[in-house]
Each structure stands twice: as structure tokens, then as C-alpha cells.
Specification:
This protein is α+β, with helices and mostly antiparallel strands. It folds into three domains: 91 residues, 2-Layer Sandwich (Ribosomal Protein S5, domain 2); 37 residues, no CATH class; 138 residues, no CATH class. 64% of the residues lie in helices and 13% in strands. It has a four-stranded mixed β-sheet with strand order 1-2-4-3.
Length: 286
């Protein structure tokens, strides 16, 4: 959901610039960082953005750069004339030079210079401003599409690596059985016990059943398939992917708790690392 877009509109008196920046977020959290946008247009812009971008932390910047001949200020003529009439008697002399000096001083008075700016965005120029917003949103969306393609490739690769690691775990299961069997026999030898072969096999089977990971293996592979299917078929799969990742984590954790084998445990650690990277990347998926 990280993205950036920028567009401009040439208005009478200057140039308007629209910028939108987005970060990860569970919902559309839109902040308009400008006082130029009228309230009625503010609501319209927010709807345009939320409809297209769906969710994320979205910051909107609207700036106006006035041209040299387009400074939107109005001089309060009546107020200036009133000051001038009051100051002439104080000056004691009436001449063009005195009036020019008085006028220069009056134009520096706070209530004369601190005048309100004329509204930059009006009903007349709104179509141009709206077009700039549309272009900005489209550019931001194109940015996110490009980023999303690279993100999808990375996530698919990590899902594939998790499946490969589980294939390696499956290949170590026979070795694990032999390791457990040898350990149990060694313990019996140390106790100087000679077990009944049939009873020993029963105990071994019972012991290994507690560490059987076949269910976890099937479920994890199904979760991985469901993850890829969701990524391909859902228009906005981000939230659902988060739930699937949780389920994948449960199966990997259970496999680790049943590992009882150094090689299996090492691969479980690597799978957890890959899953955590997928979790971080999925926050950028809509």
C-alpha cells in the first residue's frame, strides 16, 4: 500500500500542486494537509481517494504557487483613505510628497497588509482541480501496481521455499524414527533391561504417534495453496492473507514442537523466518 502520486493544475493566478502519499493501514485513514480545499470539496476528494485506494494511511497535500502577476490580495481602499484623511492634519502640510510618504507608511499597517487571500479553488476552476486529483490518484495507483508485482514475486518465492523446506522435513522422518529407536534401546541398555521385541515395537509406535506430523504437513500445504489462490483471485486479498498466515504459523509451530530431531528443528526455524518476512510483506497487499 506504499505509494506516491503527483499532479498539477494551471489556474488563473498560479499553479496548484496535488500530492498523495500512502503507507500501510488497515482502513482508509485520509488526512488532508491543506487549508486550500473548501469543505464541500474536501468530502468529495476523500470519497474519490477511498473508492480507488481502498485502505492505507493516506496523506494529501495541496499547494498553490502564485505567479508574479497573480498575487491574490485586495487592498482595502476605504480604510487606506480613512487613515490618510486622519494623518494629513497631523502632518500639517499637504503636498504630493507628504501624501506619498503617508501612503507608504499606511500600507505597512497590520490591518492593511494582513488581508485575506481570495479563494484559490472555486466552482469555476474546480474541473481543473478535480482533473489534477484524478491524475494524481491514477499515478499513485500505477506506482502501487508496479510495487505490487515485485511484492507478489517475492511472496511467491518465499511460499515456495517453505514448501521445499517441508519436503526436506518429510525426507528426514525415516531418519528421525531410527534416531528415536536407537535412543530408546540405548536407554534400556543403560538400565540393563532386555525388552520383548514385540512390546518394544508397540511402545515405539505409541511414542512416535505423539510426534507424527502428517496432519500438520497436509494442512500447511493446503494453507500455502489457499494463500496463492487468494492472491490470484481476490481483488483485495490483504486482510484474508493475514488470517491464512496465522494458520500457516500454527502448523509450523506444531511441527517444531513435535520435531525431536535437530535437522527438522533447523528447517522449522528457517520456515518461521520466511513466514515472518511474508507477514511483513503482506501488510503492503490491499
Amino acid at each position: 500500500m506504499t505509494g506516491y502520486g503527483k499532479a498539477e493544475a494551471q489556474l488563473e493566478g498560479g499553479r496548484l500542486t496535488v500530492e498523495i502519499r500512502t503507507l500501510n493501514g488497515k482502513s482508509a485513514d485520509i488526512t488532508v494537509k491543506s487549508s486550500l480545499l473548501p469543505k464541500d470539496k474536501d468530502l468529495l476528494v476523500r470519497k474519490m481517494i477511498s473508492d480507488r485506494l481502498q485502505r492505507g494511511t493516506i496523506d494529501v497535500f495541496v499547494n498553490f504557487e502564485a505567479s508574479s502577476d497573480g498575487v491574490a490580495r485586495q487592498i482595502p481602499v476605504g480604510l487606506v483613505q480613512n487613515y490618510l484623511e486622519q494623518l494629513r492634519p497631523i502632518a500639517g502640510v499637504r503636498s504630493e510628497a507628504v501624501d506619498a510618504a503617508l501612503l507608504s507608511a499606511i500600507l505597512r499597517f497590520p490591518d492593511v497588509t494582513d488581508t485575506k487571500k481570495v479563494d484559490v479553488i472555486t466552482e469555476e476552476n474546480w474541473p481543473l482541480v478535480e482533473k489534477a486529483f484524478v491524475e494524481c490518484i491514477e499515478r499513485l495507483d500505477a506506482y502501487r501496481v508496479t510495487e505490487g508485482a515485485a511484492l507478489e514475486k517475492d511472496i511467491r518465492g518465499r511460499i515456495g521455499l517453505i514448501l521445499c523446506l517441508y519436503d526436506e522435513i518429510e525426507g528426514l522422518e525415516a531418519e528421525r524414527i531410527e534416531t528415536v529407536k536407537a535412543r530408546m534401546l540405548k536407554n534400556l541398555e543403560e538400565l540393563q533391561q532386555k525388552p520383548d521385541p514385540s512390546r518394544f515395537e508397540q511402545e515405539l509406535i505409541f511414542y512416535l504417534e505423539k510426534y507424527d506430523i502428517n496432519e500438520e504437513k497436509v494442512r500447511l500445504r493446503q494453507h500455502c495453496k489457499y494463500f496463492i489462490d487468494t492472491l490470484e483471485s481476490e481483488p483485495y486479498p490483504g486482510k484474508k492473507l493475514g488470517f491464512i498466515i496465522q494458520e500457516m504459523g500454527r502448523e509450523i509451530n506444531t511441527t517444531g514442537s513435535k520435531a525431536n530431531h535437530a535437522g527438522i528443528q533447523q528447517r522449522v526455524v528457517r520456515m518461521k523466518d520466511e513466514l515472518e518476512k511474508i507477514r511483513e510483506q503482506s501488510l503492503n497487499v490491499l
